[in-house]
Amino acid sequence: NSVTVQAPGTVANLVCGFDVLGLCLDAPYDTMVIRLLDEKKVIIESADGYPLPTDPALNTAGAPLVEMLKEIEENIGFEVIIHKAIKPGSGIGSSAASAAGAVVGANVLLNNRFTKEDLVRFALFGEKVASGVKHADNIAPGIYGGITLIRSIFPLDIVAIPAPELFVTVVHPQIEVKTSDARQILRKEVLLKDAIKQWGNIAGLVAGFMKNDYDLIGRSLEDVIIEPVRSILIPGFADVKQRSVAAGALGGGISGSGPSIFMLSKDEETAHAVEAIMHDVYNGVGLDHHVYVTKVN
Ligand code: HSE
């Protein structure tokens, strides 16, 4: 009585949509095996010796399952064996993949008794463990797939956004940026003129996705509030962005809270040209890095 889940990486924020937009990647993904137990408990194990907190309340996969069990009458529990492929602190939704994969897998074992929205509600407890804040812009796309708008968290209101085919090139420079730190450094207040630009871009981006308008998508991938603060933590950021756009990418920016950078392209050839640029920039900076060429899934 077990199920194997591929829990994909996700890109949160999509540049202008801090905490409200996210997309699901085709790769990389964690592999998780979830097994039904006949007592009310949650067991967490690492498949490859990767150090994970094994106290379920402190684990990003465990905390959501503990919450789920509170809404289940039967005397059951779950064992989760996690094979991590998405590095924590990479900015491509490592904690969210564990949280989303755990609840999706558990729900399959329960004959899908919970809705996707319920699953997001449970998985948010994993993000709380990981970063101290409940944000759904990684777990919602991880659970729904594609591109999602989180219009509201309290109460939950998630909108799946249809979009044209999009290739994603992601570079993960090997520095660690903790989401909690990357949130701490943000200004708490925003100028009205910046807010106007930002919500124009968010609306433009969503309209661009829904109208299959690649130019509008490209024009809207601009962040005047978060990126100027966070990009300082990421060497090579401006170079990657400028050179990728010059090579034909639609645009891009910091993936989640960084340090990964993602660029969107409308065809695979451009996505690979961006890959070459990313290697070139980080070889120049002298930073170990990993590049993924993948798609929105
Ligand atoms: N929206 C969150 C942030 C995502 O940018 O802090 C973290 O992956």
Descriptive terms for the model:
297 residues; 6-stranded mixed beta sheet; binds L-homoserine
Structure commentary:
Residues 67-146 form the GHMP kinase N-terminal domain. It is an enzyme of class 2 (transferase). Its EC number is 2.7.1.39. It is a single chain. The chain has helices spanning 62-70, 94-109, 116-131, 139-144, 179-184, 192-210, 214-220, 227-230, 237-246, 268-285; strands at residues 2-12, 21-37, 42-46, 77-83, 147-152, 157-161, 167-173, 251-254, 261-265, 289-295. The protein is of the alpha+beta class. Strands 1, 2, 3, 4, 5 and 6 form a 6-stranded mixed β-sheet that branches. A 4-stranded antiparallel β-sheet has the order 8-9-7-10. α1 links the parallel β3 (42-46) and β4 (77-83). α2 packs antiparallel against α3 (116-131). The structure holds L-homoserine. L-homoserine binds at residues 12-13, 18-19, 135, 137-138, 179, 182-183, 256-257.
Helicity range of the residues?
Answer: 25-40%
Task: Decide which structural class fits the backbone.
Answer: alpha+beta
List the total number of helices.
Answer: 10
Distance between the termini: 28 Å
User: What overall form do the CA principal axes indicate?
Assistant: globular
Heterogens: L-homoserine
The description of the largest β-sheet is: 6 strands, mixed
